[in-house]
Records
---
Amino acid sequence: MDKTQKVELLRIAGRQIGFDFPMSQHTTLRVGGNAESVYEASDPDGLSGVVSFLVKEEIPYLVAGKGSNLLVRDGGIGGVVILLAGAFADIQFEGSDYPDILAGAGLSIADLLIWCREKGLSGLEFLAGIPGSVGGAVAMNAGAFGKETGPRVREIRLVSQRGQLTARDRSRLRFSYRDSNLEPGVVITNVLFRLDRDAPKTVSARIAGCLKRRKETQPLEYPSAGSIFKNPLNDYAGRLIEQAGLKGKRIGGAMISNKHANFIVNKAGATAMDILTLIDLAREEVRRTAGVQLELEVQIVGGAEKP
Ligand SMILES: Cc1cc2nc3c(=O)[nH]c(=O)nc-3n(C[C@H](O)[C@H](O)[C@H](O)COP(=O)(O)OP(=O)(O)OC[C@H]3O[C@@H](n4cnc5c(N)ncnc54)[C@H](O)[C@@H]3O)c2cc1C
């Protein structure tokens, strides 16, 4: 971004724009360099105006949810990182089709589930313990315990790659394993979910059950991005990494978890490079020992050098 573009961005977005923002503070792995600029969007019209400007000026941008599936390289991210706050964290019943709910894309999964539990709404309990946002869960088609987010989505409201506020209904959405057919540059603003009624006590018990299972199997005491690799067909990435003898392997401040080999944890002061080196090692060793090419689930963003 040149100086004129920065001044214009400040004019359009005012105090919602910041510069040189440490992405380690906005990712669950707690590593990575700074974002050249961060825009904290609080309403759809403002967001639409900023995206239109960025597209016109060909300034790259990335929308980040809670940063729980992002590995930001040590050089940081050029352009603008868009975060969703304000009205994007709202949640309400939609129309007369109770129990359909409209959730802001910036709402955390934890807050979404607290609301669902209070209102006696079932269908998304399997997401309990995933430290992401509603937008991130839909973009990634987050899933656990054999269930995925996609089947519960009726409609997505969004800002298009041209900066227009629009909506996309179920018939135009495709979800696959940790992926959706949303084009890069699209910003989800709200999601309409179709849920079921159930007793708050039952919903609460299901959420507690999911949290318990996670605690037993995942190294939640350290920063991580959850599973680093997707599970290959009919197998588990964690099992293959363990079989390759890499459990507990440490490089710098990063380590392949002893508890769950598909998690790389930040034990103390890891850099993105430490984690990237472990990723390469795990891929190479699994390919050598099992003949399987692991595919990344975590998204690597930014550059090795400062923009
Ligand atoms: C301890 C731990 C456990 C986890 N367990 C699971 C699990 O069981 N299942 C699972 O699926 N994942 C799991 N994850 C990974 C992660 O939490 C999910 O992928 C989550 O859905 C990411 O949401 P986020 O808001 O953090 O998105 P981010 O990590 O910020 O972004 C991920 C992607 O979504 C896009 N995105 C985010 N918000 C929007 C938006 N509003 N509009 C358009 N695109 C958007 C980003 O551009 C990026 O491409 C785990 C992570 C951790 C740290």
---
Amino acid sequence: MPKLVSNSVKPSAGSILPAENPSVYEAPILHIDLDAFFASVEILDEPSLKGKPVAVGGAGARSVIASASYEARRYGVKSAMPSLLAQRMCPDLIILPGRFDRYEYYSQRFHDIINDLTPDYEPLGLDEVFCDLRSLSLLTPDPIAAAWNLKGRINDELGLLSGVGLGRNKLWAKLASKRSKPHVVKGQLIDGPGVLWVDPEMEAKWLVELPIRSLWGVGPATAAKLENLGIHFVRDLSKVGEETLAIHVGPAMARSLADYATGDDERAVEINRELKSIGHDQTFAKSIRSVEELLEIAKSHSAIVARALRSKEQVARTISVSLRFDDQSAVSRSQTLPFGVDDETAISAIVGALMETVPLKESVRLVGVHLSNFLDRSENAVQLSFDIDSGSIEGKAKVAQLSQERQVSKEALRDAVDEVRAKFGNTSLGTLSELGDEGLEIERQRGSHAFGPKDSRAT
Ligand SMILES: [Mg+2]
């Protein structure tokens, strides 16, 4: 039995509610797919189309339909169908040419709403997203509630309907979102559950019933090869060994199929490379007053976020520091650089400069370092490279090659540090930022209170 049944936007009174909702560990993967996306955007922009059979696609002899409204689907019109056939099935069909700037605009707003739920998401085209909910174990302990909330926001703020699937992996989440949507039976539109979680019982049932073609990742060519081997349903996969499959579909696909046969799926949610921010926060068991200790912590946070950033092959232009004090007040400071950085020495130099502008009025409970405003490494005008192994031959060559750039970088970084002080006021009693041969070092005067005098600027 489906775990939640209702209309398309909110759980209805007659919903079959599960006795207990799954935890994020039972349903870690969410897949959301906007309904009839291109056609729906056309109807939103031109309300007179509402209730009419609308499709987006080409009108030529060899054109196909890209997206069809539910009114058009009642006539059997589907995406990827030849436009001529669609017009024959539905003579009143309104075929529009498509406006990709509008679809991109709505897609961006869709991603913004997703990002509010979690930054751990992977877009698939313009109108589908996989989310990994595991990072939200404390924030969102109930994936079904999170799914309804997400659907509700997308409907309220964008005017778009969607289907949401939850499962233990991408395979089930994607199958579930498809089955959560309305579908047409004999010209009648039948409501889907809206949100669907595939629990272990349903998995077992689907494994028996599912046609091989319905598996995400099994394209028409692979499906045809499998059908030639007598494999029509997922349940048939177990009849053929992985070795035999490998001969026909290659070893990688054979491995995946062997997984799918048991409902497993190794594919991870590939987190969006266009991240909004990367951060590291730490709350202390015992509040800290020592400036040296806080700067050491900020430095280690800088190293952690720098490493995360480099793994994305991106550089960040904006560096932020947040502090929370014992009295629960909080301060954040940020600086946007004219260039991107991905090096922990550079990041901790800016972090240090930002921290020096914060009056240390109380002991500190939390220190956070965040990076945002990303560029691809290749787009970055000024490369900062402090982490070259100058001992090796390649390293020596690289140092020579970069020495000029590095000189520019040092100056640019020094300017940025000066700008921080100018912007927030130099409340610091310490001295700042010397760029030594080994990179940038923060020196301070003995006994200084680097977070500034008590009577300093407001938080
Ligand atoms: Mg869609």
